[in-house]
Design brief:
The complex is a heterotrimer. Chain A is built from twelve helices and ten strands. Chain A is α/β, with parallel strands linked by helices. By secondary structure, chain B is an all-alpha fold. Chain B has a single domain (82-316), classed as MetI-like (MetI-like fold). Chain B has helices at residues 23-61, 81-112, 118-130, 133-160, 175-200, 203-211, 216-244, 247-252, 270-277, 284-316; strands at residues 71-72, 77-78. Chain B has a two-stranded antiparallel sheet. Chain C is mostly helical. Chain C is globular, with a radius of gyration of 26 Å. The N and C termini of chain C lie far apart (64 Å). Chain C folds into two domains: 2-57; 62-292, MetI-like (MetI-like fold, Orthogonal Bundle), CATH 1.10.3720.10. The chains are: A alpha/beta, B mainly alpha, C mainly alpha.
Chain lengths: 272, 318, 294
Amino acid sequence: MQTELLEQPNTPTILPIETLQVMPMIKMSARNVDAFFGKAQVLHNISLDVPANKVLAIIGPSGCGKSTLVRCLNRMHEVAGGTMAGLVLLDDRDIYKEDAVRIRKRIGMVFQKPNPFPTMSIFDNVAVGLKLNGLATRRNIGEVVERSLKQAALWDEVKDALNKSGVSLSGGQQQRLCIARTLAVSPEVILMDEPASALDPIATAKIEELIHDLKKKYTIVIVTHNMQQAARVSDLTAFLYMGKLIEYDETKKIFTNPSIKQTEDYITGRFG
Amino acid sequence: MSFVVSASQTTKVPVATSPKRHFGDVAFKYTTTIFAGFVLLLVLLMGFEMYMQAKPTIEKFGWSFLTRTVWDPVQEEYGALPFVFGTLFSSLIALVIALPLSIGIAIFLSEMAPRWLEPPLSFLIELLAGIPSIVYGLWGIFVLVPWIRISLEPLLSRHLDFIPLFRGAPYGYGMLAAGLILSIMVLPIVTSISRDVLKAIPQTQREASLALGATKWESVKLILGDAKSGIFGAVLLGLGRAIGETMAVTMVIGNTPSISISLFDPGYTMASVLANEFTEATTAMYLSALIEIAFLLFGITIIINMLARLLVWSVTKK
Amino acid sequence: MERNKEMSIVNENIPYHFFRRKAINGAMLALCAVSALIAIGILSLIFFYTINRGASYLSLDFFLQMPKPVGETGGGMANAIVGTVILIGIGSAIGLPIGVMAGIYLAEHGNNKFAVLVRFMTDVLSGVPSIVAGVVAYSLVVIPTKHFSAFAGGVALAILMIPTVTRTTEEMVRLVPQSYREAGLALGIPQWKTTVQIVLRTAFRGIVTGILLAVARVAGETAPLLFTALGNRFWSTSLDQPIASLSVFVYDYAKSPFEDWNNQAWAAALVLIILISLLSLSVRIVTRNRFSSR
């Protein structure tokens, strides 16, 4: 049943890359998002657009609500017990009116601490999303795993050890494994919540390089407290402070000529 | 009743810097050490005492004590097989019934229940563990056994009598009653340890699977995969509990030393033969045979508990 | 071509599969909730029957009268209530000092191999069937003294109390913040005095909790008393004589053919359940206050 369906040529849900390059379109947008934990309000009236095939960096001092904002974008905020108000659109459709499970498949997430499944092999860690979503067939699974690991720049390091446990890898490798795991289900958007903060500089550089490659095919939102990192990897930067969106502009502009004083103070290290 | 499964990380007590330690310190440390050692000694003492008292039958029957089916105090012929069989069979029934329920409840408690509901619900489950065995037995005699005799067994034999498990006269007292009551009694311990084990799995694991587009249940299944050795430990602890359970089983199992596959037939367990016959044991051999059964029970439960603790520790101690 | 292959994976148009997953998800989660309901249902059934059948036979006589001879109705179980208290008293007198001291050792000096072994064996000991504790007490006390006695029953209960007390004492002493110990030592107080006067005083409520837990565990124990304390239809408070207990009383009366006795068994069971529920509840309250005040 599934295989039959898979073999049919079907309508792609991602727009062809060529189109996107000509006409940048808005992949996701947040409209007047408020987020709460219990009674405490963490985000205040945030609105921003995420263009397709760009990297958006969200920066700000710790506790400013960066993580909460990205977790609102794939409905992980509610998993942590929070509530939110406002609209989050993916391809102009409200994700809070769709099924959370389907949304999370389309909007992948990489977490702060690498979290491969400890009881699974490297291969299974990558294949698990595919299996869960019922998209795995005997024919495609090996291919997808290989391709995902290649995309995550991990293939050469692990291709001879696919049966080893995922947690046997180094921290940086584990994080790339988690990225491969996310890529395997072919998401349209990838959210990264401080993906390199637990890693050493070399591993961080690798992840940054990877982000650069991945934006050709995916839309990426990355949370970081590291301003140099934001400057290096992103096209657009949003500065969040105390749960409010202070400034949102092209990265170049934010880091060279911010229009708001608070942003400038933060960028130049005067606070935070 | 809380089931304490793991010790928190050991705290380092600062050592006094003066080279000559205070006399009181040394004395205090050694006093507590002696008491700690006493706990250790107690386990050994228990084993040793029972071994010494059981020596006559151990020497007379050797390993055949385990395989003989005769239990005849008049002829001084003793074999423990019917009791061993009854113990294992009733415990097995209990686990088959209790395991899915316990894991379901543990999942409900750790993954689904709203934060305000979990503590009172856990408390009720623990209350179930606190009810004395004798009260379960009383309830078994007057509520469970009549229900089994009048409703459950006729129903089972009407529809499932092609399975040998469900053949025989609906008597009420028997393996089925013992298995059911044991399943209620092991449910709390399997539940609360499984819950602890599930809770020890980091939240990031749940988020990882959900972020891949897993449904809640699929995410729970992955978590169960991570927790399986700990849950196996919980099952073993439940088994240990079932094997040693005495009063409730004695009151409903029918107390007949026979070996039968039918759940409707009465049986006997190691613990219940002790409860019934210990005060009647008039000859040295009779007493020795009973104490040997206690010794076996001790050995089996010690081994099961050791395995179980090691498994649970391996998961919750990380 | 390469892209096409990818597209075949990005297939959102599998409603059948998706709805099946959602259905399984709903069904399994519902089953988990139902399991919880079943457990609560069973608990209520047991409480319902015990209260329903026991409450009407609870009267002042029940607490103050002695059991009546066979054939006469009425009477109470004053001797069994006193017997249970005495048995718990003996068990505590033997078991608590050992358990508390061993717990202190594990918490304060418990980072060596010996302590790991003790901790492990304590856990294992808590899994030993209670009837085995009875056999051991029989062999240690009844055989040498050649008769059943309250003391033998107390020994059996002590064996059952030790692991609970040891482990909760350890946990509670550990909860005392390290800074308290350091504060004491910094004042020049010897370590053992710091432990006794500062650490134990702070952990006192927690240790009491452990003791209550242990008492709750043994209060309803029957199996270890059957052939140690035996039971007694007459008034006795002598440690050297067989002694009555509520739990053995329930056992004897439950098996009896007289309906009046069966009813009294339910009443005694109700007393046991109330006693144990109160103990558990007070433990709950003591521990909750403790953690919320921190």
